[in-house]
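STRUCTURE:
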């Protein structure tokens, strides 16, 4: 038994309470090292004849990555408090792990040996808005989605789609263009829109804010935006705006004041100025996003800055009834700011969705006091590596994603924002080498996995494009130039997701161990049904034997509606090259 590889802590993703009041406990061990793990537990105040009263229950193996096995168990402490340890068995040795170390058998003379979950306080439970788990998002880059009002076109606008996207060109996309195309989004099945920034800014991407309290004139007016929110809400569509609180734009008035007055500016402490006079070249002498002088970092510890930005957060929720904030470069802003931000905006709208842009392990932001979710870029990386770049095997994908899933509690994973393309990445069809079948597999997984999925505008009709700015082409509205077959595929997946709760976030998720090395399979299960999704990454058709006893069950193919009554213990299905099946039994 390799004890050095065993890890547990009574917090975060290793011990947490879900909204159903159950306590979930996890432990990590060396891969293939243990045969059995058992939880020994009890109420810390339950004693009889000077001996602590305990119970035991086995843990289940919930998955394995390259190095570790993960085990879990769910218990319901009757008095909402628990002391516990783990009995570990590798077939030749048995030992008990407690907070104070390893013992040959569970010590019962003092509960202080054991891990402690002091009390299951309701206020501490991580709770993302329930509606998010059922939402299918659609990301819109406003300048490139649709031009609904030519009267607000910026100076120098070029005809729609007449040239390749560039950092400096404008095509006139606006809010009215979105309103006019709500029927398109509703028909597709979209229930949430995530907008990249719409506030007044210099660039076409708007991540260099000039005025956080104004809609950029090229997009329309506040009245137009209010019409958009009302129209979307009438059609069952939520609205999430993008907030850039880490940095402002170069032409933000307060930063211009610092450039003009230097050390005498009342706004000098709004930013992180290293010295005066302020210089921008060859390298800025103030903190910025990356090293661009055009995005000076805001000092969110400054009380004036903090209150200004908190009011931005409150204002658009209070006055326009938006449903979510996506927070740009969220990991570079201090935690104290985000705690106050959550408190302020949730006081106005309790079920507001707060989404942080963080590309790495985000547990410090996901303890229920800051964000409801982060953008699930590890999911993006792994799904692209498997289906698009074909640089990893199905087995490697499972190992990688098992590690990611076990980084967070189950209720955090259910609200994770899953994406396969965005304004910062090449188009999914381009990533897949123009192979539509592989794109269909990507969307199949995106729309049947745990979390809340997001589609980048135009990906559903097969738009192409390289890295930014190539991925920011104008939306193609001519159906002659759309891949309507791909559109129908995505539309059908969304319909299935809405019809079958297990395809959303109900039940237990598990990857399937299989003899088919080229197939990725996973199940979603509740007490009544199981849905099995299988994706074939092989260039040839495969025969997939379901590794479960399905005798007497009726297996329904949710994609084509075919039903099969199984009489044998095992059952085999045929999966075409780069194809998939979605089975319910």
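SEQUENCE:
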């Amino acid at each position: 038994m390799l004890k050095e590889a065993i890890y547990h802590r009574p917090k975060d993703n290793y011990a947490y309470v879900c909204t159903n009041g159950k306590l979930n406990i996890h432990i990590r061990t060396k891969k293939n090292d243990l045969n059995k793990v058992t939880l020994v537990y009890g109420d810390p105040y339950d004693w009889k004849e000077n001996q602590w009263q305990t119970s035991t229950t086995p843990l289940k193996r919930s998955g394995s990555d390259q190095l570790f096995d993960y085990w879990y168990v769910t218990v319901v402490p009757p008095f909402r408090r628990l002391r516990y340890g783990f009995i570990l068995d590798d077939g030749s040795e048995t030992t008990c792990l407690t907070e104070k170390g390893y013992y040959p058998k569970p010590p019962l003379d003092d509960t202080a040996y054991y891990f402690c979950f002091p009390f299951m306080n309701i206020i501490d439970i991580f709770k993302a808005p329930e509606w998010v788990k059922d939402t299918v998002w659609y990301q819109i880059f406003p300048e490139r989605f649709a031009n609904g009002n030519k009267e607000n076109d910026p100076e120098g606008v070029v005809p729609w789609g007449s040239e390749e996207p560039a950092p400096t060109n404008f095509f006139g996309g606006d809010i009215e263009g979105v309103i006019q195309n709500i029927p398109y989004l509703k028909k597709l099945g979209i229930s949430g829109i995530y907008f990249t920034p719409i506030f007044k800014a210099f660039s076409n991407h708007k991540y260099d804010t000039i005025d956080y309290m104004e809609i950029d004139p090229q997009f329309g007016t506040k009245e137009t935006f209010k019409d958009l929110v009302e129209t979307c809400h009438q059609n069952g569509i939520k609205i999430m705006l993008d907030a850039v609180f880490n940095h402002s734009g170069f032409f933000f008035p307060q930063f211009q004041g610092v450039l003009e007055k230097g050390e005498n500016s009342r706004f000098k402490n709004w930013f992180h100025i290293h010295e005066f006079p302020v210089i921008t070249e060859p390298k800025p002498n103030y903190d910025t996003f990356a090293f661009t002088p055009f995005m000076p970092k805001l000092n969110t510890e400054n009380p004036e800055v903090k209150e200004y930005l908190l009011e931005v957060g409150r204002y658009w929720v209070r006055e326009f009834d938006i449903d979510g904030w996506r927070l740009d470069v969220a990991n570079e802003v201090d935690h104290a700011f985000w705690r106050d931000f959550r408190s302020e905006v949730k006081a106005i709208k309790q079920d507001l969705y707060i989404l942080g842009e963080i590309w790495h392990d985000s547990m410090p932001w996901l303890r229920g006091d800051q964000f409801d979710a982060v953008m699930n870029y590890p999911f993006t990386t792994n799904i692209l590596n498997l289906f698009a770049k074909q640089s990893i095997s199905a087995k490697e994908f499972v190992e990688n994603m098992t590690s990611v899933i076990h980084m967070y509690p189950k209720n955090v994973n259910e609200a994770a924002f899953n994406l396969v393309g965005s304004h910062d990445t090449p188009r999914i069809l381009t990533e897949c080498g123009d192979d539509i079948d592989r794109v269909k597999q990507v969307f199949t997984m995106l729309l049947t996995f745990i979390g809340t999925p997001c589609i980048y505008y135009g990906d559903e009709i097969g738009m192409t494009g390289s890295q930014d700015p190539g991925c920011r082409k104008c939306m193609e509205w001519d159906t002659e130039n759309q891949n309507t077959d791909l559109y129908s595929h995505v539309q059908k997946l969304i319909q299935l997701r809405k019809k079958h709760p297990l395809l959303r976030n109900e039940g237990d998720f598990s990857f399937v161990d299989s003899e088919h090395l080229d197939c990725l399979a996973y199940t979603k299960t509740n007490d009544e049904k199981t849905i099995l999704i299988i994706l074939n990454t092989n260039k040839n058709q495969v025969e997939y034997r379901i590794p479960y006893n399905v005798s007497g069950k009726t297996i329904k193919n949710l994609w084509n509606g075919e039903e099969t009554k199984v009489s044998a213990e095992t059952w085999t299905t045929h999966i075409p090259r780069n194809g998939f099946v979605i089975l319910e039994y």
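REMARK: The longest strand covers residues 23-30.
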